[in-house]
Amino acid sequence: MMDFPTIIQILDSALRLMTPLLLACLAGLYSERAGVFDIGLEGKMLMAAFTAASIAYATGNAWLGLAAGIAGALALSLVHGLASITFRGNQLISGVAINFLASGLTVLLGQKIFGLGGRTPSLQGAARFTEITLPFAEALRPVPVIGPIYAELISGHTILVYVAFAMVPLTWWVLYRTRFGLRLRAVGENPASVDTAGVSVTRLRFAAVCICGVLCGLAGAYLATGISAGFVKEMTAGRGFIALAALIFAKWRPWSALGATFLFGLLEALANRFPNLDIGFMTIPSMFMSALPYILTVIILAGFVGRAIPPRAGGEPYVKER
Question: Which of 35, 105, 169, 313 has the most CB atoms around its CB within 10 Å?
Answer without folding.
Answer: 35
